[in-house]
Design brief:
CATH class of the largest domain: Alpha Beta
CATH architecture of the largest domain: 3-Layer(aba) Sandwich
Strand content: 15-25%
Largest sheet: 6 strands, mixed
Number of helices: 8
CATH superfamily of the largest domain: von Willebrand factor, type A domain
Mean pLDDT: 81
Low-confidence stretches: 1-34, 254-268
Distance between the termini: 50 Å
Number of domains: 2
Shape: globular
Number of strands: 14
Strand order of the largest sheet: 7-6-5-8-9-10
Length: 343
Amino acid sequence: MPVNFRTGRAWCAVALISVAAFVIVARAQEPIRVEVRDVIVPVTVTDDKGRFVSNLEKNDFHVFDEGREQKVTVFNHQQSQPIVIGFLLDQSNGMKIHWAKYQEATSELMLNLLPLEKKYSGYLITYGNEPELVVDTSSDSEKMVEKLRKMKPGGGSALFDAIYMACTSRKTIKGEPYEPRRVVVVIGDGHDTSSKKTLKEVIEVAQRNLVTIYALSTAAFGFHTDAEDNLVQMTEQTGGKVETPLNNVYKDISGYLSKPSDAGNYAIDVGTGGYTAELSSAIFRSIANLSGEITTQYVMRYTPDVGEKGVDRQFRRIRVTVNNLPNVTLRYRSGYYPFGPPQ
């Protein structure tokens, strides 16, 4: 039977394409893992009175990855470190009572952390029933302040979806997450009534993207709510902290919760100059604390050396210690994911 060489070549080509397609499909079924080559660890050190300890050097720190000490290759403690910071502003009904105060405080925080220099960038996300990227990543803080002035709260609260958006759906700056490093500040009470994402999911996506989360809690007058635990978990797991300005409004005032009044159980009557001054002072002290912490951190970087036992761990835990300082508190991320999520 005669052989048609052209047809034969075509058949071979089809066969090769089919085999190649099979290999591609087979490989596509495997999870795509992108290894983290370097880990960045911002660290805050405070003494037993909450004051920043700012005179430490590289040799004072020890960084452990899965219990194995690491060699720190980059150490930075300059106050002018490049940073990209996301402002996540609660627009739910719960913000209405003190909206004007937090509106003013957020504007102050934006202007302090983004002084119109290229190495400082930020973005603004609001969240009510759903998150919205109001201003994408930019060095222009005045643009964000202008948008902020026109806002009015109302609706539900999609906090977790807002965190997810901050980590995945904005314009990035060349060099992230190392220079600049990534920070998010949540201004809200921690409630979530509308999100599709869960608390666990957004903590993971923040850890994968090396984002440090801070929060300015708007929960009022020292009464703990379960929603505040959301803020605590997000900040502690990523190396940040929660400021609770309204919890301390009455710390220096006798009679709080023991002097009934028609306007409520306040030691300073609502609507008076004293009440307004205490409230504003507490909020702006918290703003100053956040600004100070973000700009005074020690930033360390290392290439993971975890030995055979730590190679395949899906989540690697970090521990940081300092020499000869027993009464200090260290805040840093709890760990990181060495591989990207399955695709």
